[in-house]
UniProtKB/TrEMBL annotation:
Descriptive protein name: Nitroreductase
Key word Hydrolase present: no
Domain Nitroreductase per the UniProt entry, residue ranges: 8-176
Pfam short name (any one): Nitroreductase
Length: 198
């Protein structure tokens, strides 16, 4: 098995997170920046943007998310939601992934033939970057799980951290020490997923 496949297998959704990492904030930041720089984007447009939340900012984000979800969640279901969000806050930090929509719009104007595709390609670039960062963290034995509380929290996030208006929030990767491993992963039958022709 190649090292690449092993890395992919190691990247799992870790929900039991703690704040006991051996890596420094600076080391994590440097790793993520390098991965984002090397992640592909259409026309090398580099639309991906990342906001790093550590310490109080990380905890504030999950508190804000809880506040945003409370009025939208049935009262009987909210304790479960609250417990889930608190498990995220127990981690070390959160990465907010954005796409710079000004670049997307400029490309649409510049290359009209592909105008409809640029928003799609932007989403693909974002997804690739998220997966690459997640895998790189896993290689360092840093647990993570990917969340999507946008657009519910977009306005509050933009206000709290002065996010440029053209940045569109796409996902949140919460990370920390691995306090319990991921569960067993199940796979579909290959016959349902793959076709091969000669």
């Amino acid at each position: 098995m190649t090292e690449f496949i092993q890395a992919l297998k190691k990247r799992r959704s870790i929900y039991a997170l703690g704040d006991n990492l051996t890596q420094s904030k600076e080391e994590i930041t440097a790793l993520v920046k390098e991965v984002v720089r090397e992640s592909p984007s259409s026309f090398n447009s580099q639309t991906q943007r990342v906001v790093f939340l550590f310490g109080d900012a990380h905890k504030k984000f999950w508190s804000m998310t809880e506040e945003a979800l409370k009025p939208l969640t049935p009262a009987e279901a909210f304790p479960n939601t609250q417990a889930k969000l608190q498990s995220f806050a127990a981690g070390t930090g959160t990465l907010l992934f954005f796409e710079d929509m000004d670049i997307v719009k400029n490309l649409q104007e510049q290359f009209e033939l592909y105008a409809d595709n640029f928003p799609i390609w932007s989403e693909q670039a974002s997804g690739l970057t998220q997966a690459n960062v997640w895998t790189a963290l896993a290689q360092e034995n840093i647990g993570a799980n990917l969340q999507h509380y946008n657009p519910i929290i977009d306005e509050a996030v933009a206000k709290e951290w002065s996010i440029p208006s053209q940045w569109k929030l796409r996902a949140q990767l919460v990370f920390g020490s691995i306090e319990a491993p991921a569960g067993e992963k199940e796979y579909m039958e290959d016959s349902a997923r793959f076709l091969e022709f000669n």
